[in-house]
Design brief:
alpha/beta; Rossmann fold; seven-stranded parallel beta sheet; 29 strands; P-loop_NTPase
């Protein structure tokens, strides 16, 4: 039943208070006014009447003589000032989950009392009290207090929705003051709530910053909150009787060592942990599958605490026989992060046995000594090969962090010489065969689901941004890639042709080409590194000078340690002051963050330093005011590293899918005044960016089913088995000498002929492709032996086959190397990059090259026209139409020339040629073509003469077309104002996603465009307002689409 005053929005603070009370009453809460409550004094913060009503029926002996006297003593014991404020609060909630002991003075009788009935939440007494007067160092009147069984658990502070001078920040400051002046009320406080309207409600720890306060945006796991205001959602969701009791019982965390560190769960952590618990219970062996399910939560949304809350639920669970919890990571930094959290949470977990495990033996001993409980944290790499399981207990829950990376591989491989190699995933499952496995990941893949089960709960990147738990990610693409110089490329191609004619194998040539064109080799071009370093320096300084970065923290991600070191030296050359040592930290502004090796040159080795030094770098970088501002990384810190104040990443490396998400998420952590995390890429990664963000918004299985993959894999395997029907596999696998094994494979294949060799290569690579597409536990059991056998056979044969190649001569290789040094053009090119759109076209010089034929000039002109059309739609269309007409006229002349050339009589050929006027016609066409091309170049440069950006020129052209099409008659200054506004909107929108694929971005874009159309009166001279507006809106959206479509 909806409260009566939902008919209109509350305006005053009093109306807001009444509305909240009505919402509580609709949830079954009792309501009392503060001045109606019977208390001995205003210093009393308990409601003894409610406490008595709750305890009396549960503990009849309290009523033996004078129940009220017992309750008074219990309340006094609870309020005894024997601890500091934060310690008191922590200790109160720690004891609340168990029972408190009360010894009656007059007869010494001992009572074990539960202050809350956690098993039957509706047995508790829930009451909301408004305008409660409380005495302390100063008298205060609190807006709302939520009581459970007479104990004040939640305090609300309200501000008027209509008062522009008050807001949540004022409400927060007032609560901070109340806590100092009336601490007795706050000692039992679970959390506080701030509210200044039905759409602005946050909850959090009373002494924490306002930025840490969160919104509760879900009523229940199943129930939709659509159409409800946030205030209603908060009270129906967070303050549901069963939910608030469960939160108080299991979802308030305190650090063991520092009681001031207190965290209240967020709503996705609450629902996620409970759903994961239910899934584990359902799938627990021996009756279940052992696949506990997957929690899919975007990077930075607090998955570690979701794991912590889940672990508490598991360790307490009698129905699961109080299982042991094994936390497994695949990166040292992640396991260290988990260790730090869990080892500081033993009080919360109610289990002191929380250990970091360094070997299989240590884990075996730990599990043997326990029948229940214990939390063990390790890396999956610690699972050594062994025939004996570590434990056959079924009350072991394995929770894998970032489960997509290394724990879905179960394929045994045969090493050369007959030995087997057991992958980590299989080692883990073989070691704990009866355990139940749970996966936590930010980037789920299909193989992950087949190991851990289906996705049980998800919390996407869009949801996290919308809730304010993480910030938006903004992509800026800068020109850092290289273009090949055609003339030098032709020389390289000619050298490869000469090598082929000299007898070099095609395979040898192909391999040499691959090595020379690897991205890492291109990234390391010296001139390019100089340019990238200079751009990073200038870009970074501009951001700092313009106040666009909160603390000046930046990360440079490079394509390898050597390239990182080269960029370090290039930056040092350009900004030597950045490399002066700070007296306080002993560090320079720029540091190399990577692992050193013995092969490093001395300076690089010394700069990187020891592991201990690298750990210190991580600590100092996280200090927002430290002088260490710029970290140059290759692989370290790209996973498991949290630095909230980091807001800029320079990405000189191409990542895709999960790797890209993991990397760019380093800058998505929430931090005060941080509106977004900026990723500056020196490669055109827009398509990968878009695809990766779309994937973390979903997490469903791929289009192919497991049945289809298995069927295709078996078909390929059948062909291989037919080809090797008479190969003695058993004997082969028993051989322990690799040379003998190799000889057996080579002799067999060589004896089958050339056709067999080609078929084997195709059949094996196709089989491996299908198998690896979905190599899970079930497929491994059925087909893993075959996969391992043919992989070993292929390794022997491919090595032998490579030996038969005729290599490229050393002289030719050296000549190619000399050409490759100059093949890349590092200078600025005729390329415009704005946001998501990158348009390339031939430069004027390239077009005017005297070596160009007429056909070549037309081809280059067409490329220019296509580039223009992507930016200036109408002009580009007209340009291409004119060029197409010219092309048709050229082709007609060329046909006529071909006909004339076939005339054998020279005099007759000359006469007809002169009569046709071909030469004059060609010259006229050339003039028209050159004028057209020149106009195209002017159009592409038009914005410069007006001191405009390229985008502004695009939008102005489009608005001019509207003005003419609909006869608006608007003056140019009004079009210019509209241009500036629409360009500003585009700059904002494009930073946070592709409006063509992100519905939330598209919706926001449409709404803002409607506002601008109204603002600039793009309709007032037209009677068909609605129709005109729709046309304009669609054309502008199409304009935006042209700026993104080439990166799809």
């Amino acid at each position: 039943m909806e409260p009566e005053n939902t008919k209109r929005k509350p305006i005053t603070e009093e109306e807001l208070e009444d509305y909240i009370i009505s919402l509580f009453e609709s949830q079954g809460y009792l309501y009392s006014r503060g001045n109606e409550i019977q208390r001995e004094s205003y210093y009393e913060v308990f409601l003894l009447e409610d406490l008595t009503r709750f305890l009396k029926p549960k503990y009849p002996k309290l009523d033996h003589f004078d129940c009220y006297s017992d309750i008074r003593h219990i309340a006094d014991d609870l309020q005894r000032e024997d601890k500091q404020f934060y310690d008191f609060n922590k200790n109160f909630f720690k004891n609340l989950s168990d029972e408190i002991t009360y010894i009656r003075e007059r007869d010494g009788e001992k009572f074990s009392i539960s202050l809350i009935d956690f098993k039957n939440p509706t047995n508790n007494i829930f009451r909301v009290v408004n305008q409660l007067a409380v005495e302390g160092s100063s008298p205060r009147r609190v807006d709302l207090v939520v009581y459970i069984n007479g104990i004040p658990f939640v305090i609300w502070e309200l501000k008027s929705p209509s008062d522009k001078y008050t807001d949540l920040r004022i409400a927060h400051q007032q609560l901070q003051l109340y806590q100092k002046e009336i601490p007795a009320l706050f000692k039992y406080n679970a959390f506080t709530v701030l509210c200044d309207g039905i759409g602005n409600v946050r909850y959090g720890v009373s002494w924490e910053t306002l930025e840490s306060f969160a919104k509760w945006k879900k009523i229940s796991d199943e129930e939709s909150a659509e159409g409800k205001d946030l205030l209603s959602i908060t009270i129906e969701g967070l303050f549901d009787k069963e939910r608030i009791v469960k939160l108080i019982q299991d979802f308030i965390w305190f650090s063991d060592s520092n009681p001031q560190k207190k965290i209240i769960c967020r709503y996705p952590q609450f629902y996620g942990a409970l759903k994961m618990y239910d899934s584990i219970k359902k799938n627990l062996k021996p009756t279940g599958s052992g696949k506990g399910g997957i929690y899919f939560g975007t990077t930075g949304c607090g998955k570690s605490f979701t794991m912590l809350f889940l672990s508490r639920l598991l360790l307490k669970s009698n129905e699961l026989n109080k299982p042991s919890v094994l936390l497994i990571a695949d990166r040292v930094e992640i396991s260290e992060q988990l260790c730090s959290l869990f080892q500081s949470s033993t009080d919360f977990l109610q289990d002191k046995n929380v250990k970091s495990i360094n070997s299989r033996t240590e884990l075996s001993e730990s599990l043997k000594n326990l029948e229940t409980g214990g939390v063990f944290i390790t890396n999956i790499q610690k699972f050594e090969e062994s025939e004996e399981p570590l434990s056959d207990r079924n009350n072991i829950i394995c929770i894998s962090d970032e489960a997509h990376r290394s724990q879905h591989n179960f394929d045994v491989e045969y090493k050369e010489g007959g030995k087997q190699k057991i992958p980590f995933g299989k080692r883990l499952h073989d070691s704990l065969p009866n355990a139940t496995y749970v996966g936590f990941t930010a980037t789920p893949i299909d193989k992950t689901m087949d190991v851990f089960g289906e996705i049980v709960d998800r919390y996407t990147m869009d949801e996290s941004i919308d809730d304010g738990f993480t910030v938006k990610l903004k992509l800026e693409v800068r020109k850092g890639w290289l273009e090949i110089q055609d003339d030098i490329a032709q020389q390289v191609i000619e050298k490869y042709r000469e090598a082929r004619e000299s007898g070099a194998s095609g395979e040898a040539i192909e391999e040499d080409q691959k090595l020379r064109t690897q991205l890492k080799a291109i990234c390391g071009v010296k001139e390019r590194i100089e340019k990238i370093a200079g751009d990073i320096v200038n870009h970074y300084k501009n951001r700092v000078d313009n106040g666009e970065t909160v603390c000046g923290k930046a990360m440079i991600v490079t394509h390898g340690r050597d390239i990182g070191y080269s960029i370090y030296k290039a930056i040092r050359e350009k900004e030597p002051s950045w490399f002066e040592v700070d007296k306080e930290t002993g560090l320079t502004k720029v540091q190399l963050v990577m692992t050193r090796t013995k092969g490093d040159e001395k300076e690089m080795y010394d700069l990187i330093g020891s592991d201990k030094y690298q750990k210190r770098l991580a600590e100092i970088f996280k200090e927002n005011e430290s002088n260490f501002k710029i970290a140059i990384v290759s692989d370290k810190w790209l996973t498991g590293f949290d630095c909230p104040c980091l807001d800029t990443m320079y990405l000189d490396r191409i990542f895709q899918d999960k790797q890209l998400i993991q990397t760019i998420s380093r800058v998505n952590r929430k931090y005060m005044r941080k509106d977004y995390g900026l990723v500056v890429s020196y490669w055109p990664i827009q398509r990968y960016w878009k695809e990766a963000l779309e994937k973390v918004g979903g997490g469903e299985r791929g289009e192919l089913s497991l049945e289809e993959v298995i069927a295709n894999t078996k078909d390929c395997l059948e062909l291989l088995n037919k080809a090797f029907y008479d190969f003695d596999r058993d004997t082969f696998l028993k051989i322990t000498d690799r040379e003998t094994q190799s000889e057996m494979v080579i002799n067999y294949i060589e004896g089958k002929g050339e056709g067999f060799k080609a078929d084997f290569k195709e059949q094996y690579t196709t089989f491996a492709k299908w198998y690896d597409l979905w190599a899970n536990l079930e497929m491994s059991k059925e087909l893993g032996e075959d996969r391992a056998f043919y992989k070993l056979v292929w390794s022997y044969w491919s090595r032998h086959f490579r030996k038969s190649w005729t290599p490229i001569s050393a002289k030719t290789k050296q000549e190619i190397s000399e050409h490759m040094k100059n093949i890349f053009l590092v200078e600025d090119m005729a390329q415009y990059s704005f946001g998501y759109l990158t348009v390339s076209f031939p430069s004027k010089e390239e077009y005017n090259n005297k070596k160009n034929s007429e056909e070549e000039k037309l081809r280059k002109g067409k490329k220019l026209g296509q580039a223009i059309a992507k930016i200036h739609k109408s002009f580009g269309k007209s340009f291409l139409e004119r060029l197409a007409r010219l092309q048709a006229e050229y082709e007609a002349i060329w046909k006529e020339q071909a006909r004339l050339s076939e005339i054998e009589d020279p005099e007759e050929r000359k006469r007809q040629t002169e009569e046709s006027g071909i030469q004059e016609r060609i010259e006229a066409l050339n003039r028209e073509r050159d004028e057209l091309i020149e106009g195209g170049y002017r159009k592409m440069e038009e914005h410069k003469s007006k001191n405009w950006t390229k985008e502004e020129q695009v939008f102005f052209d489009q608005l001019q077309e509207f003005n003419s099409q609909f006869n608006f008659g608007l003056p140019e200054d009004q079009l210019l104002a509209f241009t500036r506004d629409i360009n500003h909107l585009w700059q904002e929108i494009k930073s946070f996603g592709d409006p063509n694929t992100r519905f939330s971005v598209l919706s926001n874009l449409k709404m803002e465009l409607y506002k601008l159309i109204d603002k600039h009166h793009f309709y007032e001279n037209d009677d068909n307002y609605n129709e005109t507006t729709i046309v304009i809106l669609e054309e502008l959206l199409d304009c935006f689409k042209r700026m993104t479509e080439n990166e799809r």
